[in-house]
Amino acid sequence: MRAVLIIGAGRSASSLIQYLLNKSEEEQLHLVIADLSLELAQKKTNNHPNATAIALDIFNEKERRAVIEKAAIVISMLPAHLHIEIAKDCLLFKKNLVTASYISDAMQALDVEVKKNNLIFMNEVGLDPGIDHMSAMKVIDEIREKGGKMLLFESFCGGLVAPESDTNLWNYKFTWAPRNVVLAGQGGVAKFIQEGTYKYIPYTSLFRRTEFLEVEGYGKFEAYSNRDSLKYRSIYGLEDILTLYRGTIRRVGFSKAWNMFVQLGMTDDSYVMEDSENMSYRQFMNSFLPYHPTDSVEIKTRLLLKIDQDDIMWDKLLELDLFNDNKIVGLKDATPAHILEKILSDSWTLEPDDKDMIVMYHKFGYELNGKKVQMDSQMVCIGQDQTYTAMAKTVGLPVAMATLLILNGKIKTTGVQIPIHKEVYIPVLKELEQYGIHFKEKPMPYLGYKDM
Q1: Beta-bridge mates of residue 243
Q2: Rounded to an integer, what distance in angstroms lies between the CA atom of residue 80 and that of residue 96?
Q3: How many angstroms separate the CA atoms of 127 and 175, rounded?
Q4: Which end of the chain is least crowded, N or C, by CB within 10 Å?
Q5: What is the pLDDT of residues 387-406, one digit of tens each?
Q6: Does 267 reside within a domain?
Q7: Buried b or exposed e, range 64-77, using 16+ CB within 10 angstroms
Q8: Among residues 241, 230, 133, which one has the least CA distance to residue 189?
Q9: CATH code for the domain in which residue 12 is found
Q10: Strand, coil or helix: what is 310?
Q11: Please, what is the angle between helix 390-407 and helix 14-27, to 10°?
Q12: CATH no. for residue 176?
């Protein structure tokens, strides 16, 4: 039996583990599921004979190295900043590594040594990053092979709530790390290129500059710009492209409402609020508003944000119970972002029977035989329940499939890499279709961006 070490047994690992367990007999696999919580790891084994749960503190070097040394391959489902020590141990013991996270500078720095040891460190092989890379490169390569020249590439992805579980005015629930949602767009300006002109959107304007998308069978969506779209020119070999834009999908109206929090300063994570532990939700709200001897917190909020009491924006704020003086934050030394996350979790946590939804949308504009054409590609995936979510499925399955391809010697390219080569994306995308993750491609008129 070949030992597959999976470090991290959180929600995103559910579908990954199930897939490998289902393949364990024919592929001769034994899964070692390691997590700080032994109970969580045991739960994910499903009492399968080809799985062992262990408690692992990754900061205990001796323990960590002992389990990595015994593995045939290592999958790290930890938060991105924790991969590097795992990666160094994989290099030490000459083990291949798979993660779903963006390649950090520290990970990239290992590339020469990884290649020297004939190893594969496959990163960004989840959903976004992951399926976005693979589905984009498949079409881009096909366009190039028939002699087309890429003019435009736009890519959008969002983790949302499925229509049947969409029960609040925000048309949104947390399907992934809530903290990432609260901090989205911070830490740098959004950069992209349209018709050869560089565009920049500062964080303060990010949620008021949205694009609209129509997804067949699911209606209208909006998307706000991701931080740095420009880096994908070199990744995808699109150095001469005129338009390149990547964005995050939400239901129409979400961004306008979220912008209220941005303008008030509630998404700030750079300072701690005094006595946050004893602060009420109403006091939290009031702390961002000017003093007035007679106006209530509600009136001050409406005046500052310029919203009328019959505006849907006002109803969205009321729905979150932000003005409740009896609800206590209960978080010590909390930043505004931490407190906002706590408040939103009251309303936006998935219920046991709720389903989530992943929407991915690519636009490819290119010139072929002197004619400009466009093709749009859409993928929608609906989750099963709280455990086997669409997010867990779309992140975990490609990780598991790439792991097996590496284990079976089907991937030959060594080094620190992402899944943009045919040896990875062709088999993974093909197998994902068996699990209902498939793209519908549709020819469209090429519009481009006339007004620059």
Answers
A1: 152
A2: 17
A3: 13
A4: C
A5: 788 999 999 999 999 999 99
A6: no
A7: beebbeebbbbbbb
A8: 230
A9: 3.40.50.720
A10: coil
A11: 30
A12: 3.30.360.10
Same domain, 283 and 245: no
- Residues in contact with 395: Cβ distance below 8 Å, sequence separation at least 6, in sequence order: 12, 15, 16, 100, 126, 127, 130
- Both tokens of 383, joined, read 């989750």
Q: Which parts of 82-153 fold into alpha helices (H)?
A: 83-92, 105-108, 111-116, 131-145
Alpha-carbon span 353 to 371, nearest angstrom? 49
Q: Indicate the pTM of the whole model.
A: 0.91
- Residues 246, 370: one domain? yes
Residues 250 and 281 in one domain: no
Query: Is residue 418 very low, low, confident or very high in pLDDT (cuts 50, 70, 90)?
Result: very high
pLDDT tens digits for range 142-184 = 999 999 999 999 999 999 999 999 999 999 999 888 999 999 9
Answer whether the bond into residue 427 is a cis peptide, omega within 30°. Answer: no
352 pLDDT exceeds 70?
yes
Please say whether the beta carbons of 352 and 385 come within 8 A. Answer: yes
Rounded to whole angstroms, how far apart are CA atoms 267 and 253?
A: 18
pLDDT digits (tens, 9 = 90+) for 201-223: 999 999 999 999 999 999 999 99
CB 44 within 8 A of CB 14: yes
Strands 96-99 vs 219-225: parallel, antiparallel or unpaired: unpaired
Order of strands across the sheet that contains 120-122: 51-55, 29-35, 2-7, 73-76, 96-99, 120-122, 415-417
Percent of the chain with pLDDT over 90: 91
CB 119 within 8 A of CB 90: yes
Q: What is the pLDDT of residues 86-135, one digit of tens each?
A: 999 999 999 999 999 999 999 999 999 999 999 999 999 999 899 999 99
Query: Token pair of 197, please?
Result: 């002109």
Q: For residue 345, what pLDDT is reported?
A: 95
Q: Are residues 372 and 325 in the same domain?
A: no
Query: Could you give the number of structural domains in the chain?
Result: 3
Q: Are 166 and 347 in contact (CB under 8 A)?
A: no
Host domain of residue 296: 272-334
Q: Is residue 408 assigned to a domain?
A: no
Cα-based distances in Å from 5 to 34, 175, 192, 308, 353: 7, 26, 39, 55, 31
Do residues 203 and 186 touch, judged by C-beta distance below 8 A? yes
Query: Is residue 305 domain-shared with residue 356, that is, in the same domain?
Result: no
Is 70 exceeded by the pLDDT of residue 451?
no
Most distant CA pair in the chain: distance in Å?
Answer: 74
In-domain check, residue 340: no
**48 with 87, same domain?**
yes
Does residue 309 sit in the same domain as residue 242? no
